[in-house]
Amino acid sequence: MNKKKSFVIKVLFVSLPLIALDIISKLFAIAHSGVTACIAAKQICFRYTENTGIAFSIPIPMLAITIINTLLLFSILKLAVDEFKLNKITLLSISLILAGGVGNLIDRFLRSYVVDFISILKFPIFNIADIYISVAVLIIIVFYGKIKR
Question: What's the domain count of the chain?
């Protein structure tokens, strides 16, 4: 098996449990949708929300969101395999982006919205998939020199 195929298989192997965790967290949020619970002086809250928009709930038609998300996921994976060193940092960051993107796409296909439930301060409400994507982008920014070919 060539190095690129092996890398893609590893990305899928890392992404699948992350996707499962995202799905489970959203099912938990749905089951407790009538509950709001806060900690840390009400600065971090569980607050169920149905996000029909894109990032930060910006409104956009469902079909456009689905097409954009799908194209972005495939483009990022292709870019990573072609342009980045196939190392552990790239593996982790791409796995996180894939898991987050797929997790939110699953919601869009099943529900026509994304389940968000984490509220911190005045920041828009988000979910585990959003955390994956944000952490991955941060990893890419911090370690860009170590992953760029």
Answer: 1
pTM value surpassing 0.90: no
- Residue with more model confidence, 123 or 115: 115
116 as an active site residue: the answer is yes
Q: Which of 22, 82, 107, 130 is catalytic?
A: 130
56 pLDDT tier (thresholds 50, 70, 90): low
On whether the CB atoms of residues 118 and 112 are closer than 8 A, the answer is no
Res 149: pLDDT: 60
Could you tell me which of 6, 85, 71 has the C-alpha nearest to residue 93? Answer: 85
Q: Which domain holds residue 139?
A: 3-147
Integer angstrom CA distances of residue 7 from 2, 16, 22:
9, 14, 23
Buried-state track 117-130, b at ≥16 Cβ within 10 A, e below 16: bbbeeeebbbbbbb
Catalytic-labelled residue, pool 22, 82, 107, 116: 116
Residue 107 among the catalytic residues: no
d(CA 115, CA 117): 7
Q: Of the segments 44-53, 64-73, 77-86, which one has the largest average pLDDT value?
A: 44-53
